[in-house]
Design goal:
The protein has 19 helices and eleven strands. It is α/β, with parallel strands linked by helices. The protein is globular and about 60 Å long. The N and C termini lie far apart (84 Å).
Length: 436
């Protein structure tokens, strides 16, 4: 009995010593499906790194942005790894808020990252965030409803075709909306969609001298078309719908078309979760014949704040979560179609992925079609397709998003929303010293 007690005591002491030695890192991430899946697979990481414990903070997109921005700007130090996007990386890196990722490991293969994605996450040739998944946006549509409407979706549709198809697909009696689009306010929610859409209508946020352009006809055409389309063919309560809400609607068979992130393709085509998995087709984001399509360019990426005291452990995790090994892990557990897309060239050259993911080519074509340095029909002084890469955009984009969401909800007119957007943008750019 004494021997057993002694052994138990030694085991307990060893466990306590190990727990004291183990380093704990806190990871802030978004509640999108790929990140939720990652958390379920982290046993693979902790087995290889038993001295590192993982703590998760999983948040809705708008809340995540607010929390990590506040934390890094105030040097709060709550997080050791942050999930951030293509907008934040260059701005924060230039502020010295992020650590460069130069210890990802010999087998990481940084050069395999798709150039369009890597370029948006690098400053002066250094990578400051590793892409967990990359995306553009495109049209996902119900092939059966398109056939029923007597139409054929072109590979590169126009907005006029989208309107025509939505009108024919809408079947309120059976709960089918012709089209589902983002309406939830936020610079990365409805304004990601509407800014990309506006590019194809010839609109821009600012002219070459940083003068806001919401008082121009191109923005009026964009917002009026969007509001009219959603009122005629969109779901009820659309002003509250973001990516996740529209994903659920589409999976439940309640959307004829959905124009959103290419990353959604693996979820809408997954028979475990989507009632229409075998009926989905894909097309490029729409245009108006002006030379620009309404698609964006984005990567949800893992970055390490400069204030962390656990940089080595954090970088080990970032390397694992964005590696080729992780892609193979997901493929072994969930199938190749569910591997996080849009980050590595090798994935798109993989015959197994090409076979499992009918959306692969359209995703890569969409990513490569976006041009952050020339996002609009007319010249602009900024970089960014669905955002403007200046610090002021985060607050201004959300303000404008609230105004446009209110117009969609019928709480204000399109003209009033645009006038208020013009006033808000003029005030922000004057205060920022961009205009006098």
């Amino acid at each position: 009995m004494k021997l057993r007690t002694l052994i138990l005591g030694l085991c307990s002491t060893s466990a306590l010593a190990f727990a004291a030695h183990a380093e704990s890192i806190t990871i802030a991430t978004v509640n999108n499906g790929d990140m939720v899946r990652m958390q379920k697979l982290t046993d693979d990481f902790t087995k290889a790194n038993p001295d590192i414990q993982l703590n998760w903070v999983t948040l809705e997109e708008n809340v995540l942005r607010e929390r990590v921005t506040t934390d890094i700007a105030t040097k709060g130090g709550q997080y050791d790894v942050m999930t951030i996007g293509t907008y934040e990386v260059p701005i924060w890196a230039k502020q010295s808020w992020l650590l460069p990722l130069d210890k990802l490991g010999d087998d990481y293969d940084v050069k395999d990252i798709i150039p369009a994605i890597a370029g948006g996450l690098s400053v002066d040739g250094k990578l400051y965030a590793a892409p967990f998944y990359g995306e553009s946006s495109f049209v996902m549509y119900r092939k059966d409803l398109m056939d029923k409407a007597g139409l054929k979706m072109p590979d590169a549709p126009t907005w006029d075709f989208i309107k025509q198809a939505a009108d024919k697909m809408t079947d309120r009696a059976n709960g089918v909306n012709g089209v589902c689009l983002r309406g939830k306010a936020g610079w990365g929610e409805n304004m990601a969609f509407l800014t990309a859409m506006s590019n194809s209508f010839g609109a821009r946020w600012f002219d070459e001298n940083w003068k806001p352009q919401f008082d121009q006809p191109e923005w009026k055409n964009t917002l009026q078309f969007y509001v009219d389309l959603m009122k005629a063919d969109g779901p009820e309560g659309a002003s509250s719908n973001g990516f996740n809400e529209n994903l659920a609607l589409f999976q439940q068979g309640k959307c004829g078309m959905w124009i959103d992130a290419t990353v959604a393709a693996s979820f809408v085509s997954d028979p475990k979760n989507s009632t229409v998995a075998d009926k989905v087709g894909y097309a490029l984001a729409p245009d108006n014949g002006l030379g620009k399509r309404g698609n964006w360019l984005w990567a949800w990426s893992l970055a390490i704040p400069a204030g962390t005291k656990k940089a080595d452990a954090a970088e080990k995790f970032v390397s694992w979560a964005t590696s080729k090994h992780y892609a193979e892990l997901v493929a072994s557990k969930e199938g190749w179609a569910n591997v996080p897309p849009g980050t590595r060239s090798s994935l798109y050259a993989n015959p197994e992925y090409q076979k499992a993911a009918p959306f692969a080519k359209m995703t890569l074509d969409s990513i490569n079609a976006a041009d952050p340095t020339h996002p609009t029909v007319k010249p602009v002084p900024y970089v960014g397709v669905q955002f403007v890469a200046i610090p002021e955009f985060q607050g201004l984009g959300t303000t404008v998003g609230q105004l446009f969401s209110a117009a969609l909800a019928g709480q204000s007119s399109v003209d009033d929303a645009l006038k208020q957007a013009q006033d808000a943008a003029t005030a922000a750019m004057t205060e920022g010293g961009y205009i006098k």
